[in-house]
Amino acid sequence: MRGCYVLFITLSDPKTISVGRRSAAEFAAGEYAYVGSALGGLEARLCRHWRKEKRLHWHIDYLLREASSEKAIFARTCEHIECQLARFFSERFSFIPRFGASDCQCCSHLFWSPDQEDLVTATRAAFRACGVKPEILTHSVKKTLTYGRNSY
Question: How many independent structural domains does the chain possess?
Answer without folding.
Answer: 1
